[in-house]
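ok so for the tutorial part 2 we go from a plain amino acid sequence to predicted structure tokens. step 1 is just haveing the sequence, like this:
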Amino acid sequence: MHDSSNGIRSSPNMEQGSTYKKTFLGSSLVDWLISNSFAASRLEAVTLASMLMEENFLRPVGVRSMDAVRSGDLAEQFLDDSTALYTFAESYKKKTSSKEEVSLGMVELSGMVVKQGYLVKQGHKRKNWKVRRFVLRKDPAFLHYYDPSKEENRPAGGFSLRGSLVSALEDNGVPMGVKGNVQGNLFKVITKDDTHYYIQASSKAERVEWIEAIKKLT
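step 2 — the prediction. this is what the tokens look like for a chain of 218 residues:
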């Protein structure tokens, strides 16, 4: 997303007589998420963009987008609108290292990509929720996740799917082991070494798609 060649193009945009540099339209981001298969619908793309903004990866710019943030409703904080302006938060641009470092072999990343998209993952230590770009590969079967704030193509983490279990979690009530801001559409992956990964999709349909895709490779 924040990539100089294939990501969102930032440019000067005007709103109510004021010009804002290095911004992009809310509708342009929604278009980009859909065209790159990270969201199946505009509603899913708006939900994902709202999560990215809540995590301070995106920042509202100007009157229209700032007013939406003040509404207080997460689902309505991001505007799919050609007059609402956004930019990448400077705090993310300046980050140079990840707290979730992992030793990766070339074999892990050699498999064919069968599915990718943005999901929200709970951290193992602080239990906070972070938006990550997930990439599912087969032969060998691995699920990797990337920090969308970094242009580098190195995963922030990943795990083998051999011997793993994946299942949906009910939305009524927060399961044991899950903390923080839970929006729903949860599923869990338990690896062969009994590590639990809690992940949120932007819709029930997306959750089903990911679960079915992962099950084929376990």
